Amino acid sequence: MPGRGEGLDGPIALALRAAGVEVEGREWGALAGKRFGEQLATIREDVLAGWWHERALLVGHSYGGYLLMHTLAGLPAHPGRVVLFSPVLGVGRSENGMYASRPPRAGRLREMVERGEFPAPRALEIHVGSEDAGCDVGEVERLTAGIAGARCAVVAGAPHRLPASYVTCVMES
Description:
Layout: H1 11-18, H2 36-50, E1 57-61, H3 63-73, E2 81-85, E3 92-93, E4 100-101, H4 108-114, E5 123-129, H5 137-146, E6 151-155, H6 164-172
Parallel strand pairs: 1-2, 2-5, 5-6
Antiparallel strand pairs: 3-4
Helix pairs in contact: 1-6, 2-3, 4-5
């Protein structure tokens, strides 16, 4: 699931392809005009139709990671691997501090995790840059600590757009 305004030809998708990962999915444009609940319903249909098995690899970037986590929150535990790069999981600030964003239902994931209600995927890993203004590193660490088997990797000195070489390395492992 690419980030807002990105497609399957964006930097993360290119890094995935460099690692030999076949990239399929829905581009942001197909979701842009829909309400939040409609976006989740569309992603849910996609996940259940083609990526609901043990060998499935779900990848989300930025706001796409946020949408993917909210979609998974409404399903049983995903049987495959879920990898998120710089997901927007709460309030984010721009690199220059000029604006902040608060996505829809920003506190829902945290509440589910705190109550032990988030359905832990078989494998969940979240990668975030230490200098990412759009992704609160502390929030990512709190969420992963509360989800069984989840792990968080903080990339020292990296901004919101993680280096392609890092993404490729993660996917090759």
